Structures are given as C-alpha cells and as structure tokens.
Amino acid sequence: MSDGAIFAKKPELSLAQYKFAVLNGTPEQSKAAKQKLVDGIKQDKMASYYTILVAEGVLQEDRALARELQEASVAELAELDKNVEVAKEEHGDLEQNESSIHRAVFLAQMGEEEKAHTAYEEVLQRPTTTLNQKLDIVFGKLRLGMFYYRPIIVQREIDRAHELVNKGGDWDRRNRLKAFECVWRCSQRQFKEASDLFIECLSTYASPELMPLSEFVCHGTIACAVTMSRSDIKKKVIDAPEVVEVVNYIPNVDKLLR
Q1: What is the pTM of this model?
Q2: Which of 48, 84, 139, 177 gives 20 to 30 Å between its CA and that of 169?
Q3: Burial, 246: exposed, middle or buried (Cβ in 10 Å; 0-12, 13-18, 19+)?
Q4: Range with lowest mean pLDDT among 59-63, 143-147, 150-154, 170-174
C-alpha cells in the first residue's frame, strides 16, 4: 500500500487456542489440537515458541524438529537483517521503517515475545515513523499481547492506539481498532462494550489478519445475544448482510440468534 501499511498477521492467534485445547480439551480434542499446533509451528518457523512449549510440557521434544526450526528461523532473520541494511543504504525513511517493522513481525512470529516488543518499540520511537506506521506497530504489539494473554499490555496498547487515532489515523485503522477492541472486550466478558463495537464495525469489517469474518461474527453475535433486546438483535444482527453471509457456517450461533 502507498502509505507503507504492514498489518501483522503473526503470531497466528489460532495457535494460542490450540495450545489451550491441548491442555484443557478431551483426549480427542487434545490430540487434534496438538497436531495443528505442531503444523503451525513448522509453517511459521517458530523455533523460540516451540522451545517454550517443550519447556512448559505442552509438546514433547523432537530434537530434529527443533534443529530444523532453528536453522530456518536463523536464515530468515539473517535475510531480514540484510534487508534492513539495504534499506538504510539505498532507500528513504519510509522503506527503512518498513523493513524494520517486517523484522519485528518475524520476531513475533518465531516466538521471541520480548525481542519483538523491543523491536516494535524502537521503530515506534523514531522521529521518521509516520502516524499510520505507528498505528500498525501498535496493532502488532496488541496482537502479541492477545497471543500470550497479557491484559496489561493489551489495555496499554489499546489506549495508545486511541491516542494515535485521535491525532488523525485513517478510517481503515480506526475501524481495525474497533475490531481488535471488540474481540478483546469479548474475552474479558465486557459484553456491552463488545456488542457496541461489533455493531459499529460489522458493515465495514476489513481485518482478516485478526480473524476471518465468520469468527468475528461468532464473537460479536454472542456478545449481542447477552446484552441486546430481541428486537435490536433482529434489526442489527440477524438481518445484517454480513451476518446472513456467514451464519450458516456457524450453526450454533445461528441457533442462538433464532
């Protein structure tokens, strides 16, 4: 995009759900979730996250896999470091910031939580970082906080995002913030706040890096069912084109609404 937008898609939030299922699901659910967790770790070269899960007893150690992940992550990080240096030598401030953000995203992807936060923050504090780039960084930090369930960090970054948006953030990022906050409020059982945010951003939802529309509708409609009157649910949720589009793919929610 022309403004250098980088909406972090990593780490995959679904992996945190799989970890929860491994620890808390039925034996069948745990087995299926463990395989999905390992597959996701392999796909995203999550060497550091794999090490954490082995240490926590979530996964059994596979030394060959650990070595494979380490080699792959080191190689990609070296390539990203090279891109940062090239940007410094051959490009302007926007491209330099972009390359540094991409590097921070990969640190988050591989499971280096603290290093990713530090890398994000370093770019955020640069005088050359644009307002929109700052917002993209905050969304990346928000995602990290949600993945590792760090409520203090998540609330801090939500507050920071609101401050930046009020300084002139564009429509797309304003809407993205509402989507992030809606999902977070749902997780905190703040259903009134979540339902209001859901209604506000449903018709313009454009945050596939957060979750698919069907999953967002699932979260939002549950919040609405808890807090809204039947007439408002019918008018604002059941009849909403975005809900109609996906509700058949989430049958339990369909039953709840009807």
Answers
A1: 0.91
A2: 84
A3: middle
A4: 170-174
Q: At 228, is the secondary structure helix, strand, or coil? A: coil
Please name the residues in contact with 19: beta carbons below 8 A apart, sequence gap of 6 or more: 33, 37, 53, 58
pLDDT tens-digit map of 16-40: 999 999 999 999 999 999 999 999 9
User: 10: part of which helix (H) or strand (E)?
Assistant: none
CB 111, CB 148: distance < 8 Å:
no
The number of beta carbons lying within 10 Å of the beta carbon of residue 189 is 9
Cis peptide before 151 (omega within 30 of 0): no
Under 8 Å between Cβ of 100 and 80: no
pLDDT for the residue 1: 35
**What's the CA gap between 10 and 161, in Å, rounded?**
19
List all residues 6 or more positions away from 47 whose beta carbon is below 8 Å from its beta carbon. 66, 69, 70, 72, 73, 74, 110, 111
Residue bearing tokens 């491994």: 22
**Each residue of 48-104: pLDDT tens digit?**
999 999 999 999 999 999 999 999 999 999 999 999 999 999 999 999 999 999 999
CA torsion, ordered 186, 191, 193, 196, to nearest 10 deg = 100
Dihedral angle over CA of 65, 66, 68, 74, nearest 10: 160
